[in-house]
Amino acid sequence: MHAEPGARRPSVVEMPTYAPETISRLFINLEVDSAERINSRFLVSPMGELSLIRSSHISRNCVSRRLQRHMTDGDSSYFFACAPLQGQLRIQHLGRSCLLKCGDLGFVTTDEEYVIEMSDTLDALWLRIPAALLLSHVAGMKDVVGRTIDVSRGIGVAATELMLVSSRTSDDLGDRAARLVGQSILGFVGELVNSTQPGDHSQSTAYRRKILGRAMDFIEQHLGDEALNPEAIAHGIGIGRRYLSQIFAAEGLSVMRWVLQRRLERCRMEIERCGLGSVPIHEIAYRFGFSNISSFNRAFKAHFGCSPRLLFSGADTLLH
Known about the structure:
The protein is of the alpha+beta class. It has helices at residues 20-26, 131-135, 154-169, 175-194, 203-221, 230-237, 241-249, 255-274, 281-287, 293-304, and strands at 11-15, 31-33, 39-47, 50-58, 62-66, 78-86, 89-93, 96-100, 104-109, 114-118, 121-130, 149-150.
């Protein structure tokens, strides 16, 4: 297999002993304790805005902690997804405790304290996702962080297998292909989260989440409709507008804010997929429901931190 022109080799980082600066660079500022010397290896694969990190270590009684003293006002916000391949780990987060082993996946948010206890031998995949990016794809992250998600079947298998294959083959991908693969991973992970219902939910909450899923599906199918509004969405799925607003508010969202986020994200994905110049930006904007290109440009820059035209000029580092 030949690497694409411009392919970026994944970074291989050897850590024969604990190095705080290495951990902070690869993950985020935290501390790691162990009963004996940590011997770790990391394979880091950039996938557009995402980073895939395959980590393996041998140690004893290894525990990582992100506490309030590690957080600063200037920290970037991330979600980390972890899928053990060998060994296991326990996450204590947001008052919850979950055990992850092969066939499981779990999330933490760097905005809150957490503790992760790792088995003496561990091989795991970590996916680092900018918080704003994941929250433009899913609702209800507060319900899944710190919980065990079964990924041994269905879309969970597809998501984790794509992550694993992408990590193994990332050295054959160019920048554009890596971004497109990152989009696919994010889509699978988002669908996995949206389809996950924590077992301790009440019947009424489960019903509300089901209606929320129907509303989001309707929105996704009608993003190109300039007239898409709460009344049209509520009518389309057979509920009242007030109830529609309530189910979004329960996830900390407003209906039209979600519509705007999804339109902007779909535009960004389409610009990356097509390549700048192959399709005029205004056509992409119109395709996803923006009727005014100036308003689109302002909203895009406010949301992503750069203009659409900078997207293919090395500006993916500017996106949040």
